[in-house]
Amino acid sequence: MINVYLFDLDDTLIDSRIYAKLYQPVLQVVKDKTGLTGEKLDKQARLLGLAKNKYGRWDTGDLCRELGLLEEYYKELNKLIAIVPVLHDAVEKVFRKLKNKGGRIGIVSNSQSRTINTYVLKYNLGDYVDFIFSPDDAGCRKDDDNYWKILIKKEKLNPETCLIIGDNEQEDIKIPQKFGFKTVHLKTPTDLGTVQ
Ligand SMILES: [Mg+2]
Question: Rounded to an integer, what distance in angstroms lies between the CA atom of residue 67 and that of residue 196?
Answer without folding.
Answer: 41
